[in-house]
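Run: sequence + zinc ion -> complex structure.
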Amino acid sequence: MKIIIKNCCQCGSDKINFSIPGGDNKERYICTSCNFIHYQNPNIVTGCILEWENKILLCKRAIDPRINYWTLPAGFLENEEPLEVGAARESEEEASALSDDMRIFSIYSLIHISQIYIMYYGTLKDGKHSPGLEESFETRLYSKDEIPWDELAFPIITENLKLFYEKEKSDKPHTGIVDKINNEYIITRN
Ligand SMILES: [Zn+2]
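>> structure
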């Protein structure tokens, strides 16, 4: 996934070349006025699988994309924010949910949208949850039999829930790749 750069984000010039900088091997948007190179790299998304009495916390999305679909609490890591702090923050923002025992659960590369998706697993503190101010319409604890598989927001959410029920918990994160080819999602577990 590539964002087209028409104006330099440093000096505002529209003299942008898409070419390979010296010492590099990939094409980048380079400003020919101030020489700034617009590198584009994957974004990190992080969140939590929170469990309480054999049930998993899901949030009904109140924002696009995939409004009204169910998801695990997760979102973009902020600059200068430690990873596990970001995961905890997203759980609190989207579901007013806390956890004292978060452990790494999965790391997936979402090739088609240049995202790295890093999920944690933990116990939902006191079983407490409620929708965040803006991002969730509803939060709910689902048992394995109740998971709304046809109403999950994203393939990576489905994959994480499958991993959760199919695989043993261990200290080693599950890893894999999600890609989208000809409008079809291809998920590869490592
Ligand atoms: Zn510039």
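>> summary
The mean pLDDT is 95. Residues 1-40 form a domain with the Ubiquitin Ligase Nedd4; Chain: W; fold (CATH 2.20.70.10).
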